[in-house]
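Forwarding the complex inputs:
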Amino acid sequence: MKRNRRDSGLAALMLVPSGVILLLFVVYPLIKAVWLGQQRCGVTKCTNNGFDQYLDAFRSNEFQDALIVTAKYALITVPIGLVLGVALAVLADKYMRGVGIFRTIFSSTVATSVAVASVMWFFLLNPNVGVLSEWIGGIAKTPGLLQDPRSALWAVSASSIWANLGFTFIVVTAGLQGVPKDLYESAYVDGAGGFSRFTNVTLPMISPTLLFATVVLTTRAFQSFGEVDLLTEGGPLGKTTTLTYLAYGSGLPTSNDDGLRATVSVLLFAVLLALALVQFRGLEKRVHYGN
Amino acid sequence: MAIDQVYGARKVGRYLLLTFMAFVVIFPIYMMVVGALKPGNKVLVNPLLPTDFTTGTLTEAWRTGHLGRALWNSAYVSVLITLAQVVTSILAAYAFAFLRFPGKTFVFVAFLATLLVPLEATLTVNRRTMQSLSWINSYKALTIPFLATAFGIFMIRQVFLTIPKEMHEAASMDGLGRLGFLWQVAVPLSRPTIGALTLFSFLTSWNQYLWPTLVTTNQKFNTVQTGLKTLKLAAIDKPNLVIAGTVIVALPIFVVLIAFQRQLIRGLTAGAVKG
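Prediction (whole assembly, two chains):
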């Protein structure tokens, strides 16, 4: 009993540092944001519009457009990034001489931050000095892939797929190493060819890894800000204004209104929660956790 | 064809494919390095080949972008955040793994629930908090909101749980005390996980972009990430300067990652492997 009380005191002491930080900078701002999201704010004061502001903002063209842009962006970057990551990981999984060099190269993009990757691609795709625009020609020269409304989102996606490739590669490679070798051998003995071994052994065995990578990549897509800020600033014609950019970018109706920014960020939180739920519900059933 | 010839052909094919993909992946990085080592007037001549060599562009980018200052800021902020996150995570993880206290499950779930809240949902209010504290343009604004992380607490609690309870009890009877047990037994036993968390925290704070743009307006407080934006806007007509800037900014992290590959893989895959 005495010991238990001593335990409680010590526990409180040890939990206070993290507890205070999480309370002040995660819990409080979230609750406050839900309240602030009901206001429109000028420079000095805010006026309350009630909960309707969420509904109005959700129905507004700006929000709907940003939601569609973000969804498109996720639908481009997640599947392509995942397929490329898995392909590279499977290619480099064989025990061969020199495979370590390839692994290092494929992992390397994990070292580039969003800012570094975006500035790199900004110049690769620059219509005047970019090598890629030179090779591609056409709209890549005038007005430029990042400047043409039809291609801008794809161009931003290319940068992001490249930047995330290292992450996907590392995670899938780790997953592949967990697949027992004897499973491949028995499949081989049963006469399964390479492709059949991949779909019947590899994919089910790495499905927890794939679920994890899908969730992380989707969340990153929905939170993308830096690449948009540095590559296109949300343009052209709002074609790359993602939800996070709508909340925090400059030159938008939200930019000087903390109330509206809060509205959009709370809605973004709701969208992300719903998405996580759907992903886990829908994909969990297909995931193979057995031994 | 004999069987070894079939295998040989397959192997060559695999190598060719691997090499091709390696070129594709590394191409943007290669272009940056080549561009950064050329003098400004030669950037557009043979952009693919390292025909000229100078370190002048790098030094000019260093000066124009105030990258020394930005690197220092990034290092300072990231080291501070990392140290704090590791310490606060170890302390809280110890309470959750070894101590008995009322409401433990509830408190633990409450801590974990903060992982569901995306950074983006809290930044507007946090920025207002910084404004009311007059912390805009300060190291305080860049570090204090990130001194603790539920992810780290959870990660370390998981590994602490694998340490037998009996060791904890034996240690307190031996007079080692509970803090002695924590620092002399539990922490050394969990070194790989703590290493992974260290690297993960460091990378995450080093790569922060959105928060620094919200709470700093003075270039003195530029991190490398916001410094790149400043450099890009300042030298829009001198692409090779900006390219050289990205090389300077990217280099330290490449070195860190090559040195700590194992920890990185452990940190990145922490969520992917079944518990």
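Strands of chain A lie at 39-41, 46-48.
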